[in-house]
Design a protein that fits this description.
This protein has 515 residues and is α+β, with helices and mostly antiparallel strands. The protein is 40% helix and 18% strand. The chain has 18 helices and 18 strands. Strand 17 and strand 18 form a beta hairpin. Helix 3 packs antiparallel against helix 5 and helix 3 packs across helix 6.
């Protein structure tokens, strides 16, 4: 008799994970929240399922699940075949699945208690053989009965003290917080030291991040510059999976390994020593979440777009066959660190969705590549990118429509000014170009074709030569029913490294605006 047929499968799925991650809008706490989730999913739930004498028994699978991949940076931590031999079928990508010969209902009760206790506030769904059973319920707080609310979130009771920095320093901080916040902070500190078991921490330990200090706050990460939030997600992954349990496991495992290999190389490239052989301190980026085929990462503004290019270069080089290739839809937002992080994440999701729509619109399946969309905000708030673009980027009439940006664009294409890789390379050519004249040229793009062409013609020969080296020899090119320009994208990318340079340093209390 086939055990896999008679066994009952318990499936646990988390929802609104990012909302839960950003509930405490401090960098260390966000890292800790992700580590808490990862350790619960990958360690605590499997450990609970293996316990004897609790009223349930795991059912080993007789099917052939994929073994660990020798090329996987985390091969010692991701072995689906070994997990399946004891009955655990999935523990990655926000899902846990195991099969039981008996006691499936008893296990779901214990698992629900564990999740409500260790991950308070995180929503989840539990099913047995695809039949919904229980969902997340309110966790009864065990916090001390004091009257003051948590100073960081305004929710929960202030029951513990968290400190920042040295008591003798001017920026020393001491705050009373809830027990939920304390748990995130405590695990975040472990993660910063490489002692947590979530995938982001485990992968970081294999990169140059291992030798660098990690910032505790977003302001410490970016200094006087801007931050960038990157959200990358696999394109058409759900439609590409085989459809059977083992085939899906092999498919998702392969994607996890590919993404981890590419992320590792991109992180090492971003954390390379400078020309003097010195490391940056603190590290220029912090992974916030690494799932099956998605990545969430915060970094200094200047690091973001080169990181995206390197990530997609590595991902592309690892896959020789274009059929079934893993590609990414990526959104990147640049803003001041005082903008609420949950709002920045909403915008990155919108931008990633924009990139995915362009990917789906590509006609040649074999020519489909990773696509990116990005937005730069220098304002005190981040408006809806769709409304901003409709207002600022569309000019002219239906018969003579002008579009001031090419976004979203393919990530790769080294010598193409309509790709991120080409734009980043081109922006490097503009390092010594006259900035005021380029900015004036960009301003004329919205004022009319004649004025913009006149401004381009009046550029000094040196500036024209640099633009030509960057890939722009004329201000407009025809694209289907509209005229489009690469100038705004190119000059904007060239200016990213200078964001915040003229902004006065603000007090560390601004971080509280994230709440």
């Amino acid at each position: 008799m086939n055990i896999a047929i008679t066994a009952q499968r318990v499936h646990i799925e988390f929802s609104r994970v990012q909302t839960w991650l950003f509930a405490v809008p401090r960098l260390r706490a966000m890292v800790g929240a992700n580590a808490l989730l990862g350790e619960t999913l990958r360690v605590a739930l499997p450990k609970l399922a293996r316990e004897n004498g609790r009223g349930w028994t795991l059912a080993p699978s007789n099917e052939t699940y994929p073994a660990s991949d020798a090329n996987d940076p985390l091969k010692d931590y991701d072995d689906p075949a070994a997990d399946a031999k004891v009955g655990i079928l999935s523990r990655d990508g926000g899902h846990f699945e195991a099969q039981f010969t008996s006691g499936a209902e008893a296990f779901t009760d214990a698992a629900g208690q564990l999740l409500r206790s260790d991950l308070p506030g995180l929503r989840f769904r539990v099913s047995i053989d695809q039949k919904p059973l229980i969902g997340s319920q309110v966790h009864v707080s065990t916090e001390l009965p004091v009257l003051a609310p948590c100073e960081w979130t305004g929710r929960g009771l202030a029951s513990a003290i968290v400190t920042r920095g040295n008591p003798n320093d001017r920026d020393y901080e001491e705050r009373t917080v809830s027990l939920d916040v304390l748990a995130r902070e405590t695990v975040g500190e472990r993660a910063a030291k490489g002692n947590a078991c979530d995938l982001a921490t485990l992968l970081s330990a294999t990169t140059r991040l291992h030798d660098l200090d990690q910032a505790q706050e977003l302001k410490k990460l970016v200094g006087n510059g801007y931050l960038a939030l990157i959200h990358a997600d696999g394109n058409n992954v759900g439609m590409s999976k085989p459809g059977d349990a083992v085939g899906d496991a092999c498919f998702f495992h392969q994607n996890r390994v590919l993404l981890r290999q590419a992320v590792k190389e991109a992180i090492d490239d971003a954390c390379a020593k400078d020309e003097a052989g010195r490391n940056e301190s603190p590290a220029p980026l912090v992974p916030l979440m690494l799932g099956g085929d998605d990545l969430l990462l915060v970094c200094r503004a200047r690091v973001a777009l080169p990181f995206v290019v390197k990530l997609c270069e590595e991902l592309n080089s690892l896959q020789k066959d274009s059929k079934g290739k893993l590609t990414l839809g990526i959104g990147v937002v640049f803003a001041k660190h005082t903008i609420p992080i949950h709002r920045l994440h909403e915008v990155t999701e919108e931008l990633a969705s924009s990139a995915k729509r362009r990917f789906r619109g590509l006609k040649d399946a074999d020519a489909k590549h990773s696509v990116v969309d990005w937005a730069v905000y220098s304002t005190a708030w981040v408006d809806d990118p769709v409304e901003v673009r409709r207002r600022d980027w569309l000019r002219g009439s239906e018969s003579e429509l002008r579009v001031l940006s090419q976004r979203p664009v393919d990530v790769l294409g080294e010598h193409r000014v309509d790709s991120l890789q080409g734009l980043v390379r081109g922006a490097q050519q503009l390092t010594h170009a006259p900035r005021s004249q380029l900015r004036y040229l960009v301003e004329q793009l919205s004022r009319g074709r004649a004025l913009s062409e006149l401004a381009f013609a009046e550029l000094p020969q040196e500036a024209k030569g640099l633009l030509a080296e960057a890939g722009v020899k004329e201000p407009w090119r025809r694209a289907e029913k509209a005229s489009i320009t690469a100038l705004l994208d190119l000059v904007e990318i060239a200016e990213i490294t200078r964001l915040g340079r003229n902004t006065a340093r603000t007090d560390s209390a601004e971080e509280a605006a994230h709440a």
